[in-house]
Amino acid sequence: MCSPSRMTKPQKPLGELALIEQIRQDSAGQRSRFVRLGIGDDCAILQPPAGSEVLVTTDFSLEGRHFRRDWHSPESVGHRCLARGLSDLAAMGATPMAAFLSLALPKSVAKGWTTRFFAGLRVLAERYRVPLAGGDTAQAPGEFILADIVLVGAAPAGRALRRSGARVGDLLYVTGALGGSATELERMRSGKSRRVKSGSWERHPHMFPEPRVAVGEFLMKSGIASACLDLSDGLSTDLAHLCEESGVSAEVEEGLLPIHPLAREVGAGLATQAALHGGEDYELLFTARPGMSVPRRILGVAVTRIGRVVRKGEMVLVREDGSRVVLEARGWEHFWS
Ligand SMILES: [Mg+2]
């Protein structure tokens, strides 16, 4: 009960060591070629491949803001927590090296919740061979769960994909399908969906999104993408980010948008809105020079051309009847009636 490390860290809440021990056991089977020293010392030691740069991203998962305990299973919260960070690495073509998690739990949260949270996180961590190499836990002062994840990745020096590389004339592509996450969230809000403990991106795009890690690495290594980012806030908002960083604008063809099967069920109008503005699809949006040969599938993931890069100005949506309207950045906006 009274281990030396507990005596040296009296400020830590009871139960934390058990939690850290659990994380340590979880990560023991996931030795990574990049982690020289994981949990157990004051710091982790990472060894990036020779000639590479280190990429770091951090993401909050806050109860009430990013998830609700009555909508999201603990497994889904764990999965989504890691998926958000992995998606940021994918956006830049980085190879994940390690994850670090800080978790603040209210006293009222049962141990079972935490165990299941880590189980959800672990499934995704094993799929992408990214070990949890450290972290911290504390008792939350309030009644809400707070998780902050840090992902560290590597990419060959100078080769990481950026938002700023798009040029006028480039074509615009997206991976996978759009609008599924917003649709599933709306189904949950309106009581048409129930909490799920596990699932795939195809059936539960909001609860279990699939970060496009391998596709991002492929885009970086192949030199196909001139600019890239991941779709976290919604196509319209994230496209505006890419345009801003590249000093360009874009035209999106409504009829080309790949709509997630779940979104198709709500009718074409709402599905298009969900695809354009829904957010949290965690697909990759990238541009490629017009002469570039872009495969229709990359490592099993569909790649769809949805528009093109034009001179700086307002973004345009070309409707299926050929009419042109301004495409406003409205990611995260509430468009359901
Ligand atoms: Mg991002």
Précis, in short:
With 337 residues, the protein is of the alpha+beta class. The protein is 29% helix and 25% strand.
Report what the structure shows.
The chain is an alpha+beta fold and 337 residues long. The protein is 29% helix and 25% strand. It has nine helices and 14 strands. The protein has helices at 4-8, 16-28, 74-91, 111-127, 180-189, 213-222, 235-246, 261-264, 268-277; strands at residues 35-37, 45-46, 52-62, 95-105, 132-139, 146-156, 171-175, 227-230, 249-253, 284-288, 297-298, 301-310, 316-318, 324-326. The strands form three sheets. Strands 7, 8, 9, 10, 11, 12, 13 and 14 form an eight-stranded mixed sheet that branches. A hairpin with a 7-residue loop joins strand 1 and strand 2. Helix 3 packs parallel to helix 4 (111-127). The termini are far apart. Mean pLDDT is 91; it is low at 1-14. The structure holds magnesium ion.
Straight-line distance between termini: 55 Å
Computed Rg: 21 Å
Helical segment count: 9
**Average pLDDT across residues?**
91
Looking at this protein, list some descriptive labels:
alpha+beta; 4-stranded mixed β-sheet; 8-stranded mixed β-sheet; disordered N terminus; globular; 337 residues; binds magnesium ion
Fold blueprint:
Layout: H1 4-8, H2 16-28, E1 35-37, E2 45-46, E3 52-62, H3 74-91, E4 95-105, H4 111-127, E5 132-139, E6 146-156, E7 171-175, H5 180-189, H6 213-222, E8 227-230, H7 235-246, E9 249-253, H8 261-264, H9 268-277, E10 284-288, E11 297-298, E12 301-310, E13 316-318, E14 324-326
Parallel strand pairs: 4-5, 9-13
Antiparallel strand pairs: 1-2, 3-6, 4-6, 7-10, 7-12, 8-10, 9-12, 11-12, 13-14
Helix pairs in contact: 2-4, 3-4, 3-6
Bound molecules: magnesium ion (MG).
